[in-house]
Amino acid sequence: MTRSLKKGPYVDPKLLKKISKLSSGDGQVVKTWSRNSEISPEMVGFVFGVHNGKDFVEVRVNEDMVGHRLGEFSPTRKFVRHGGKIQKELEQKTKETGTAGANAGAGTNANKK
């Protein structure tokens, strides 16, 4: 659900205070736990360390990110591939046969010329 236009975008006041003390070219990481703060034009050029529940993910803000929230760029869940050991073996076999077939095919074309 979007925020009412009459209220304006939410940006944590402490975060704004930290930004006002720094200059954008410093390259210092501004650590924050405020994932729900909306990125404003004043934040462009800064590097934020956005907390994802475990550690801080560095997010370099550019013009395309204005209007989005900081938490969108710091994933909280780690994607784990399914399949395990058997799946890895199958992928390895297909990779080996795919490269061997490509090399063999290239060799036969060279012989025909």
From TrEMBL:
Domain of life: Bacteria
Keywords: Ribonucleoprotein, Ribosomal protein, RNA-binding, rRNA-binding
PROSITE patterns: RIBOSOMAL_S19
MF (Gene Ontology): rRNA binding; structural constituent of ribosome
Region (Disordered): 81-113
Basic and acidic residues biased stretches: 86-96
Gene Ontology biological-process annotations: ribosomal small subunit assembly; translation
Coiled coil: none
Low complexity composition bias: residue spans: 97-113
GO CC terms: cytoplasm; small ribosomal subunit
Entry keyword annotation includes RNA-binding: yes
InterPro entries per record: Ribosomal_uS19 (IPR002222), Ribosomal_uS19_bac-type (IPR005732), Ribosomal_uS19_CS (IPR020934), Ribosomal_uS19_SF (IPR023575)
The protein's role, per its UniProt record: Protein S19 forms a complex with S13 that binds strongly to the 16S ribosomal RNA.
Alphabetized PANTHER family for the sequence: RIBOSOMAL PROTEIN S19P FAMILY MEMBER (PTHR11880), SMALL RIBOSOMAL SUBUNIT PROTEIN US19M (PTHR11880:SF8)
Family: Belongs to the universal ribosomal protein uS19 family.
Name this protein carries in UniProt: Small ribosomal subunit protein uS19
Name of the gene this protein is made from: rpsS
